[in-house]
Amino acid sequence: MRVTVCQLPDDPGPFEQAWERLVTHARHARSELVVLPEMPFHPWFATTCRFDADVWRAVMAAHDAWEKRLPELAPAAVIGSRPIEFGNERYNAAFLWTAQDGALATVHCKAYLPEEEGTWEASWYAAATPEFEPAMVGAASAGVLICSELWAMEQARLYGKDNVHLLVTPRLTGAATLDKWLAAGRVAAVLAGAFGLSSNRYDAAKGFGGQGWIVGPDGEVLALTTRDEPFVTREVDLSAAERAKQTYPRYVI
Fold first, then answer.
1. What pTM, to 2 d.p., does this model score?
2. Domains of the chain by range and CATH?
């Protein structure tokens, strides 16, 4: 399966240009899955602990508008996250879009939310009840962990028990913590015995670090995005993830 990860700008102007380049890259690379960063279609908004309904509506509207352009990435499927409302509650929801269905399917809503300077997520939307079910992307089973959920390492292990091939992490993380996040991604891939895929925002002025990754089932780094190479595609062997489940440490834990 050919998979693509990316780093995308935070600002709308550069984002438009980057999107066009991502579409071209995915087409030329014959990608079958494109992973987007966490809530990518609006500049990051949870920079204050005071909820602003007007800003939230703008974030929702931006995602509604940009999701109409997901077919530009077809025939690739797309995994990312977006803001949603369910009754009176607001959530950050992982989604899967496929050309076959032509619509977004919610995979699950983010369960673990930071609440600190720069990422006041719990002030803006609710933490969902932890409910993690794999989603099918063609022949691949994918488990999604949205950003901070990656640190719930037990869930990576449980996804492995569910026989996922891919562990997908849309994220929004800073440049100062890139090594820590990559270390987490490698460990989670080992626990799941799956290929780890992650995409991130990039904005040097705002401190967003980029560095999307493709990691193998034994934690080997297969590809990283950079400022000069913001999109990378690799072919991953789904049977390698199936074989990994039978090897140490997966058969023990």
1. 0.97
2. 2-244 (3.60.110.10)
